[in-house]
Amino acid sequence: MNQKISSTLLFVTSNPNKASEVRKILNKNGISFHHMNASYQEIQSSSLKTIATESARCLYERLKTPLFLEDSGLFIEQLSGFPGPYSSYVYKTIGNSGVLKLMFTIANRTSRFESVVAYAENDNDIHLFSGIVLGRIADKKKGKGWGFDPIFIPRNCDETYAEMGIESKQRVSHRYVAFTKFSNWFKTHG
Amino acid sequence: MNQKISSTLLFVTSNPNKASEVRKILNKNGISFHHMNASYQEIQSSSLKTIATESARCLYERLKTPLFLEDSGLFIEQLSGFPGPYSSYVYKTIGNSGVLKLMFTIANRTSRFESVVAYAENDNDIHLFSGIVLGRIADKKKGKGWGFDPIFIPRNCDETYAEMGIESKQRVSHRYVAFTKFSNWFKTHG
What we know:
Two copies of one chain form a homodimer.
Chain A: E1 4-12, H1 16-28, E2 31-36, H2 48-63, E3 67-76, E4 83-84, H3 87-93, H4 95-102, E5 110-120, E6 126-137, E7 152-154, H5 161-172, H6 174-188
Helix pairs in contact in A: 5-6
């Protein structure tokens, strides 16, 4: 395996679950990184790509070392994309039970999980890698998992992300898709 | 009345309803302004004051003229403050009917509307004026009004903001309280 280890490559997130998921994916691809356990300022936007780009640019300006971050969101078609880029806030306030209440009488439960990885190696050079998984909102919470994992069922599956368990989820998830794209690019880049 | 007219004082908002409400309040207080019909970048934060401060600072940096803006939100106690600083996004996606669904089985409907006015006259001199009105979420939409006005009943009232009509609302609203504070300060300032 083409091993590329950078002692200064940072992954910035204050979410330990995300850090753990990403470490498993990148280590399999031979990429090591330092987890910087920190939160950072995000802008408001309906586009994950815009939010991730601005965050990476600001963090690079401050830290001046190659770094990446990830922003993700659950977009529910019949709720005009809600909770979308504010998934984290919505999870913390109304949670899975709130989203299920909103979907109570809605037959079309189509939704998608999106992940955007932003990699910065200088102020004006932000690279984006996205992963999208289509699916539907479950009728009730199933399985134990973080965030909206207990209510999201990927297309062609019968189980929620949470029911699958971390190993199986990581073979199909939006985060897996985005970080695999990032890994493939990173190993051959520069 | 102490009339203070500044030809360069800007109120920046892309919301024509807000512009109209604010013009009525400030004109009564003898303050004229130019409405700049523009949207601007906001940061993500659970604090309206933090969001308004950063927005005013960034706008002043760009425009270099005295300006003010307003950020407001509906905070529902039993939903951990949701929709709070993201009230505009939540209104555009799930709307009043979504909030009513979330409150369907909740007896304690206590909530508050908050308004924060941020006035900037140089990069490092942001003045904040806040208005809070306590109230409750109605059982159903009542009256015609914008935003969450049809579902918010101020304390000691039987009508929603929307039922009151614009004139009556303006005598009690969170926006009225914040802009009255701003007016009183502005007329005697400097």
